[in-house]
From TrEMBL:
Keywords: Signal. Residues 32-130 form the DUF4140 domain. Residues 214-285 form the DUF4139 domain. This is DUF4140 domain-containing protein. InterPro entries: CHP02231, DUF4139, DUF4140. It comes from the Bacteria. Coiled coil: none annotated.
Protein backbone atom coordinates (compact mmCIF):
# COMPACT_ATOMS: atom_id res chain seq x y z
CA UNK A 1 0.00 0.00 0.00
CA UNK A 2 2.90 2.34 0.72
CA UNK A 3 4.49 1.62 -2.66
CA UNK A 4 1.29 2.49 -4.50
CA UNK A 5 0.98 5.78 -2.64
CA UNK A 6 4.60 6.71 -3.47
CA UNK A 7 3.99 5.95 -7.15
CA UNK A 8 1.00 8.28 -7.22
CA UNK A 9 3.11 11.04 -5.74
CA UNK A 10 5.70 10.61 -8.46
CA UNK A 11 3.15 10.72 -11.29
CA UNK A 12 0.90 13.51 -10.04
CA UNK A 13 3.25 16.48 -10.80
CA UNK A 14 3.36 15.50 -14.48
CA UNK A 15 -0.39 15.46 -14.92
CA UNK A 16 -0.95 19.26 -15.06
CA UNK A 17 1.83 19.62 -17.66
CA UNK A 18 0.31 16.93 -19.89
CA UNK A 19 -3.06 18.62 -19.76
CA UNK A 20 -1.66 22.06 -20.63
CA UNK A 21 -2.46 23.68 -23.93
CA UNK A 22 0.75 24.00 -25.96
CA UNK A 23 2.09 27.49 -26.60
CA UNK A 24 3.04 28.36 -30.18
CA UNK A 25 6.25 30.31 -30.78
CA UNK A 26 6.77 31.44 -34.40
CA UNK A 27 10.45 31.38 -35.33
CA UNK A 28 12.53 33.56 -37.64
CA UNK A 29 15.29 32.18 -39.83
CA UNK A 30 18.55 34.06 -39.13
CA UNK A 31 21.42 32.12 -40.73
CA UNK A 32 22.04 29.10 -42.94
CA UNK A 33 25.22 27.10 -43.50
CA UNK A 34 24.87 25.08 -46.70
CA UNK A 35 26.87 21.90 -47.16
CA UNK A 36 27.27 19.73 -50.24
CA UNK A 37 24.40 17.73 -48.78
CA UNK A 38 22.14 19.36 -46.23
CA UNK A 39 22.13 22.72 -44.47
CA UNK A 40 22.40 23.82 -40.86
CA UNK A 41 19.65 26.34 -40.19
CA UNK A 42 19.51 28.67 -37.20
CA UNK A 43 16.23 30.19 -35.96
CA UNK A 44 15.34 32.52 -33.15
CA UNK A 45 12.03 32.58 -31.28
CA UNK A 46 10.49 34.17 -28.21
CA UNK A 47 10.00 31.85 -25.27
CA UNK A 48 7.33 32.85 -22.77
CA UNK A 49 6.57 30.21 -20.14
CA UNK A 50 5.39 30.08 -16.58
CA UNK A 51 7.05 28.32 -13.70
CA UNK A 52 6.89 24.56 -14.03
CA UNK A 53 6.67 22.23 -17.02
CA UNK A 54 5.34 23.62 -20.31
CA UNK A 55 4.97 22.48 -23.89
CA UNK A 56 6.13 24.95 -26.53
CA UNK A 57 5.65 24.39 -30.28
CA UNK A 58 8.19 26.22 -32.44
CA UNK A 59 6.65 26.88 -35.85
CA UNK A 60 7.99 27.97 -39.25
CA UNK A 61 10.87 25.53 -39.45
CA UNK A 62 11.95 23.38 -42.39
CA UNK A 63 9.69 20.59 -43.56
CA UNK A 64 12.28 17.79 -43.62
CA UNK A 65 14.98 17.84 -40.97
CA UNK A 66 17.23 15.44 -39.10
CA UNK A 67 15.55 15.16 -35.72
CA UNK A 68 18.76 14.01 -34.02
CA UNK A 69 20.46 17.28 -35.02
CA UNK A 70 18.04 19.58 -33.14
CA UNK A 71 19.82 21.88 -30.66
CA UNK A 72 17.98 24.40 -28.50
CA UNK A 73 19.60 27.23 -26.55
CA UNK A 74 16.99 28.36 -24.02
CA UNK A 75 17.16 31.35 -21.66
CA UNK A 76 18.69 30.95 -18.24
CA UNK A 77 16.60 29.03 -15.78
CA UNK A 78 14.92 26.94 -18.50
CA UNK A 79 15.71 23.27 -19.05
CA UNK A 80 14.75 21.64 -22.36
CA UNK A 81 13.71 18.09 -21.54
CA UNK A 82 12.76 16.93 -25.04
CA UNK A 83 12.55 18.16 -28.63
CA UNK A 84 10.36 16.38 -31.19
CA UNK A 85 9.92 17.24 -34.85
CA UNK A 86 6.51 16.99 -36.52
CA UNK A 87 4.20 18.58 -39.08
CA UNK A 88 0.84 20.28 -38.85
CA UNK A 89 -0.10 21.10 -42.39
CA UNK A 90 -3.19 23.28 -42.44
CA UNK A 91 -2.31 25.89 -39.79
CA UNK A 92 1.15 26.35 -41.30
CA UNK A 93 -0.07 26.57 -44.90
CA UNK A 94 -2.73 29.10 -44.02
CA UNK A 95 0.02 31.48 -42.93
CA UNK A 96 1.99 31.22 -46.16
CA UNK A 97 1.56 34.06 -48.71
CA UNK A 98 1.32 31.61 -51.62
CA UNK A 99 -1.52 29.73 -49.95
CA UNK A 100 -3.42 32.90 -49.06
CA UNK A 101 -3.04 34.17 -52.61
CA UNK A 102 -4.44 30.95 -54.04
CA UNK A 103 -7.26 30.97 -51.54
CA UNK A 104 -8.20 34.55 -52.46
CA UNK A 105 -8.07 33.69 -56.15
CA UNK A 106 -10.33 30.72 -55.60
CA UNK A 107 -12.92 32.83 -53.79
CA UNK A 108 -12.82 35.44 -56.57
CA UNK A 109 -13.30 32.80 -59.27
CA UNK A 110 -16.20 31.23 -57.38
CA UNK A 111 -17.88 34.62 -57.05
CA UNK A 112 -17.45 35.41 -60.76
CA UNK A 113 -18.74 31.99 -61.72
CA UNK A 114 -21.85 32.45 -59.57
CA UNK A 115 -22.61 35.82 -61.19
CA UNK A 116 -22.23 34.37 -64.67
CA UNK A 117 -24.57 31.51 -63.87
CA UNK A 118 -27.17 33.91 -62.48
CA UNK A 119 -27.00 36.06 -65.62
CA UNK A 120 -27.31 33.01 -67.87
CA UNK A 121 -30.30 31.72 -65.91
CA UNK A 122 -32.06 35.09 -66.25
CA UNK A 123 -31.39 35.28 -70.00
CA UNK A 124 -32.59 31.73 -70.53
CA UNK A 125 -35.82 32.67 -68.71
CA UNK A 126 -36.22 35.74 -70.93
CA UNK A 127 -35.68 33.60 -74.01
CA UNK A 128 -38.34 31.13 -72.88
CA UNK A 129 -40.77 33.97 -72.19
CA UNK A 130 -40.02 35.47 -75.61
CA UNK A 131 -40.81 32.18 -77.31
CA UNK A 132 -44.11 31.97 -75.44
CA UNK A 133 -45.13 35.53 -76.35
CA UNK A 134 -44.19 34.90 -79.95
CA UNK A 135 -46.71 32.08 -80.13
CA UNK A 136 -49.44 34.27 -78.64
CA UNK A 137 -48.61 37.42 -80.59
CA UNK A 138 -49.79 36.10 -83.97
CA UNK A 139 -53.49 36.05 -83.02
CA UNK A 140 -55.40 38.87 -84.77
CA UNK A 141 -52.27 40.68 -86.08
CA UNK A 142 -51.87 41.92 -89.66
CA UNK A 143 -48.94 41.17 -91.94
CA UNK A 144 -47.00 44.34 -91.10
CA UNK A 145 -47.34 43.77 -87.39
CA UNK A 146 -46.34 40.11 -87.78
CA UNK A 147 -43.30 41.16 -89.82
CA UNK A 148 -42.17 43.63 -87.22
CA UNK A 149 -42.87 41.11 -84.48
CA UNK A 150 -40.87 38.44 -86.28
CA UNK A 151 -37.94 40.79 -86.82
CA UNK A 152 -38.00 41.79 -83.17
CA UNK A 153 -38.18 38.19 -81.96
CA UNK A 154 -35.42 37.12 -84.33
CA UNK A 155 -33.07 39.90 -83.30
CA UNK A 156 -33.83 39.45 -79.64
CA UNK A 157 -33.37 35.68 -79.78
CA UNK A 158 -30.07 36.01 -81.58
CA UNK A 159 -28.89 38.51 -79.01
CA UNK A 160 -29.96 36.35 -76.09
CA UNK A 161 -28.63 33.10 -77.53
CA UNK A 162 -25.26 34.67 -78.37
CA UNK A 163 -25.08 36.13 -74.88
CA UNK A 164 -25.96 32.77 -73.32
CA UNK A 165 -23.35 31.03 -75.47
CA UNK A 166 -20.70 33.53 -74.37
CA UNK A 167 -21.69 33.06 -70.75
CA UNK A 168 -21.40 29.28 -71.07
CA UNK A 169 -17.88 29.65 -72.49
CA UNK A 170 -16.84 31.94 -69.67
CA UNK A 171 -18.31 29.55 -67.13
CA UNK A 172 -16.29 26.68 -68.59
CA UNK A 173 -13.05 28.70 -68.39
CA UNK A 174 -13.74 29.79 -64.84
CA UNK A 175 -14.61 26.22 -63.83
CA UNK A 176 -11.30 24.97 -65.30
CA UNK A 177 -9.42 27.75 -63.51
CA UNK A 178 -11.14 26.91 -60.24
CA UNK A 179 -10.18 23.26 -60.67
CA UNK A 180 -6.52 24.18 -61.22
CA UNK A 181 -6.48 26.40 -58.15
CA UNK A 182 -8.05 23.67 -56.04
CA UNK A 183 -5.42 21.21 -57.31
CA UNK A 184 -2.63 23.60 -56.31
CA UNK A 185 -4.15 24.03 -52.87
CA UNK A 186 -4.39 20.25 -52.53
CA UNK A 187 -0.71 19.93 -53.46
CA UNK A 188 0.23 22.44 -50.79
CA UNK A 189 -1.81 20.48 -48.26
CA UNK A 190 -0.13 17.20 -49.19
CA UNK A 191 3.43 18.47 -49.65
CA UNK A 192 5.38 18.33 -46.37
CA UNK A 193 8.01 20.72 -47.68
CA UNK A 194 5.44 23.32 -48.61
CA UNK A 195 3.71 22.95 -45.27
CA UNK A 196 6.85 23.39 -43.20
CA UNK A 197 7.49 21.74 -39.88
CA UNK A 198 7.18 22.24 -36.16
CA UNK A 199 9.39 21.38 -33.21
CA UNK A 200 7.60 20.48 -29.98
CA UNK A 201 9.62 21.30 -26.89
CA UNK A 202 9.02 20.09 -23.36
CA UNK A 203 10.61 22.66 -21.07
CA UNK A 204 10.85 23.15 -17.33
CA UNK A 205 11.35 26.60 -15.80
CA UNK A 206 12.16 27.48 -12.22
CA UNK A 207 10.33 30.80 -12.59
CA UNK A 208 8.34 32.76 -15.15
CA UNK A 209 10.54 33.32 -18.20
CA UNK A 210 10.21 35.66 -21.17
CA UNK A 211 13.28 35.71 -23.40
CA UNK A 212 14.82 34.70 -26.72
CA UNK A 213 15.89 31.21 -27.60
CA UNK A 214 17.88 29.78 -30.49
CA UNK A 215 17.05 26.63 -32.44
CA UNK A 216 19.50 24.88 -34.76
CA UNK A 217 19.05 21.79 -36.89
CA UNK A 218 20.17 20.18 -40.14
CA UNK A 219 17.71 20.25 -43.04
CA UNK A 220 18.11 17.55 -45.65
CA UNK A 221 16.64 19.25 -48.73
CA UNK A 222 19.47 21.69 -49.48
CA UNK A 223 22.83 21.53 -51.26
CA UNK A 224 25.33 23.53 -53.27
CA UNK A 225 27.83 22.85 -56.02
CA UNK A 226 30.71 24.78 -57.55
CA UNK A 227 30.64 26.61 -60.88
CA UNK A 228 33.40 28.47 -62.67
CA UNK A 229 33.44 31.25 -65.24
CA UNK A 230 36.53 31.82 -67.38
CA UNK A 231 37.03 35.35 -68.70
CA UNK A 232 39.74 36.39 -71.16
CA UNK A 233 39.69 39.90 -72.59
CA UNK A 234 42.71 39.35 -74.86
CA UNK A 235 45.75 37.08 -75.03
CA UNK A 236 48.03 39.72 -73.49
CA UNK A 237 46.10 39.77 -70.22
CA UNK A 238 45.88 37.00 -67.61
CA UNK A 239 42.95 34.64 -67.56
CA UNK A 240 40.31 35.46 -64.95
CA UNK A 241 38.67 32.61 -63.05
CA UNK A 242 35.38 33.47 -61.32
CA UNK A 243 34.34 31.07 -58.59
CA UNK A 244 30.57 30.68 -58.21
CA UNK A 245 28.15 28.49 -56.29
CA UNK A 246 24.82 27.01 -57.32
CA UNK A 247 22.65 26.77 -54.20
CA UNK A 248 19.51 24.62 -54.20
CA UNK A 249 16.99 24.32 -51.40
CA UNK A 250 13.53 22.83 -50.97
CA UNK A 251 13.11 23.34 -47.26
CA UNK A 252 9.74 25.10 -47.59
CA UNK A 253 11.16 28.36 -46.20
CA UNK A 254 12.23 31.56 -47.94
CA UNK A 255 15.91 32.38 -47.50
CA UNK A 256 15.48 36.15 -47.70
CA UNK A 257 17.68 38.51 -45.68
CA UNK A 258 19.47 35.49 -44.22
CA UNK A 259 23.18 35.20 -43.53
CA UNK A 260 24.35 32.48 -45.94
CA UNK A 261 27.56 30.47 -45.53
CA UNK A 262 28.89 27.78 -47.88
CA UNK A 263 30.79 24.88 -46.33
CA UNK A 264 32.59 21.98 -47.98
CA UNK A 265 32.34 19.78 -44.89
CA UNK A 266 29.83 17.15 -43.89
CA UNK A 267 27.24 18.10 -41.24
CA UNK A 268 26.79 14.48 -40.18
CA UNK A 269 30.45 13.97 -39.24
CA UNK A 270 31.42 14.23 -35.59
CA UNK A 271 34.39 16.50 -36.19
CA UNK A 272 36.80 14.36 -34.13
CA UNK A 273 40.30 13.60 -35.40
CA UNK A 274 40.48 9.86 -36.14
CA UNK A 275 43.05 7.64 -34.44
CA UNK A 276 45.20 5.69 -36.86
CA UNK A 277 46.11 2.19 -35.74
CA UNK A 278 49.67 0.84 -36.29
CA UNK A 279 50.03 -2.02 -38.75
CA UNK A 280 52.54 -4.77 -37.86
CA UNK A 281 53.71 -7.07 -40.65
CA UNK A 282 55.06 -10.55 -39.88
CA UNK A 283 58.43 -11.61 -41.47
CA UNK A 284 58.14 -13.60 -44.67
CA UNK A 285 60.70 -16.28 -45.58
CA UNK A 286 61.08 -17.52 -49.15
CA UNK A 287 63.40 -20.35 -50.24
CA UNK A 288 64.91 -20.20 -53.70
CA UNK A 289 66.43 -23.35 -55.10
CA UNK A 290 67.64 -24.59 -58.51
CA UNK A 291 67.78 -28.14 -59.73
CA UNK A 292 69.70 -29.84 -62.43
CA UNK A 293 67.08 -30.74 -64.93
CA UNK A 294 69.25 -33.41 -66.55
CA UNK A 295 70.67 -35.19 -63.53
CA UNK A 296 67.68 -34.55 -61.27
CA UNK A 297 69.93 -33.72 -58.34
CA UNK A 298 70.14 -30.52 -56.26
CA UNK A 299 73.00 -28.09 -56.79
CA UNK A 300 75.45 -27.41 -54.10
CA UNK A 301 74.00 -24.14 -52.89
CA UNK A 302 70.57 -22.93 -51.90
CA UNK A 303 69.66 -19.31 -51.35
CA UNK A 304 67.56 -18.06 -48.42
CA UNK A 305 66.00 -14.61 -48.62
CA UNK A 306 64.49 -13.09 -45.45
CA UNK A 307 62.29 -10.02 -45.84
CA UNK A 308 60.56 -8.50 -42.81
CA UNK A 309 59.79 -5.54 -40.58
CA UNK A 310 60.81 -5.07 -37.01
CA UNK A 311 58.18 -4.80 -34.33
CA UNK A 312 59.28 -1.23 -33.71
CA UNK A 313 58.77 -0.11 -37.27
CA UNK A 314 62.47 -0.42 -38.29
CA UNK A 315 63.69 -0.30 -41.91
CA UNK A 316 63.40 -3.21 -44.33
CA UNK A 317 65.89 -6.04 -43.92
CA UNK A 318 66.98 -8.14 -46.88
CA UNK A 319 69.48 -10.84 -45.95
CA UNK A 320 70.95 -13.62 -48.01
CA UNK A 321 72.69 -16.61 -46.42
CA UNK A 322 74.46 -19.52 -47.98
CA UNK A 323 73.75 -22.91 -46.57
CA UNK A 324 75.99 -25.96 -46.81
CA UNK A 325 74.91 -28.59 -49.31
CA UNK A 326 73.33 -31.73 -47.95
CA UNK A 327 75.72 -34.64 -47.43
CA UNK A 328 76.05 -37.16 -50.24
CA UNK A 329 75.10 -40.71 -49.61
Amino acid sequence: MIKRFALLLMISPALPAAAQTPQFAPSSLKSVTVYSRGAEMTHTARLTVSKGVSKVVVTKVAGNIDESSIQVSAPGGVTVMSATFGRNFLPEIAEKPAYRKLQDSLESVKSSLSRLRNTRTAQEGTLALLDKNQALGGNGANVAELTKLAEYYTAKQIELRNSIYGLVEKEAKLAALMERIESQLAELNENPEAAGGQIALQVMAGADVNGPMEIRYVARDASWSTHYDLKLENISKPLKLVYKANVRQHTGLDWKNVKLTLNTGNPSSAGVVPELATWFLNPVVRLRGTADALAGRALGLQEVVVTGYGSEGSANMNKKAKMAPPPRR
